[in-house]
Amino acid sequence: MKIMAYVLSLLFAVATPCLAVSDNAIGHINTLNGSGYIVRGGAVIPAKVGAVLHRADLVRTGKPGSLGVVLTDDTTISLGPNSELSLAEYEFNPREGKFSLVVRMMKGTFAYLSGMIARLAPGNAQIVIPDATIAVRGTKLLIAAEE
Amino acid sequence: MTIKWTLPLTAALICIVLTGCASQTVVLVPDPDGHTGSAAITTTGGSQTLQKPGDMTQVTGAAAAPAAVTAASAEFIAGKFADALAIEPLPAEKFILFFESGKTALAAESEPVAAEMLKAIKRRNPITISVSGHADASGSTQLNDRLANERAGLVRELLLNNGVAPEKMTLSSHGKGNPLIATPDGVAEPRNRRVEVIIR
Questions:
Q1: What is the pLDDT of residue A23?
Q2: Is A76 in the B-facing interface, judged by CB distances under 8 Å?
């Protein structure tokens, strides 16, 4: 019985972190030059190539600083210096036909390339800039938001 | 005369004081494959649609309609977006492996594609590799979910055996829900029995 409990607790210890990661990862930082940060629940994490991104993360670049993000549906967004982006909404679940993407670009310069969400559910991919919303139909956009 | 220029000036002053007159610029450019889509920019005051490569609009304030569409020059794009464009990740590379009907065996014609895929992984050293299994629309949903899942698992094994770190891989099964070729339910379509491997 004791052994059984031990084995079970070991299994949980091994399995739980894996589940947590695969459930929440919506993308990664793929490229980085200079300084960048991920803001998650108030904590500021220095950006690294390969760092995992979660829904609701804020991504910032320093000055100088630029970085490139790739989401799991292939949406690609790169940020120039002194830029700020929020991954406000993200759901990519082709098996259940659930797709949604809302990216907020608060300030800075961006290159945005649509991924599968914009292709499979064109009405559900949206970029929000300070004074407007952009409905994206499978395409590449350059966006600048002046402070 | 006085009123004519005082009004716009007052409006501009209010704008600067209240909002800092922050403006946003949106430019449509071609995708890496040369295709150009479209984008609709909407404020509470109106909307503009960008349709051609280089189409550009500007937004100044939430209440004003986006400015009329103009053409962005190559110099403007290079000047404004140089840093963002220089750091763009390499476009994802996709490899599609096809399978025998109702089975998890790789179709013979997909073996060279598998070899090419392994070469690209060595060359790029990708951050992530997504492996998604798909089935065609013949057979039950449960059967197709299981088949799609097993096909993805087979490709994962192949990648593991070739030295790919397991933490780089994400596995998913789309069943028959994301076909390459749209078919009515119940139709067997070889091009939908596949595993897509995307390296990023």
A1: 52
A2: yes
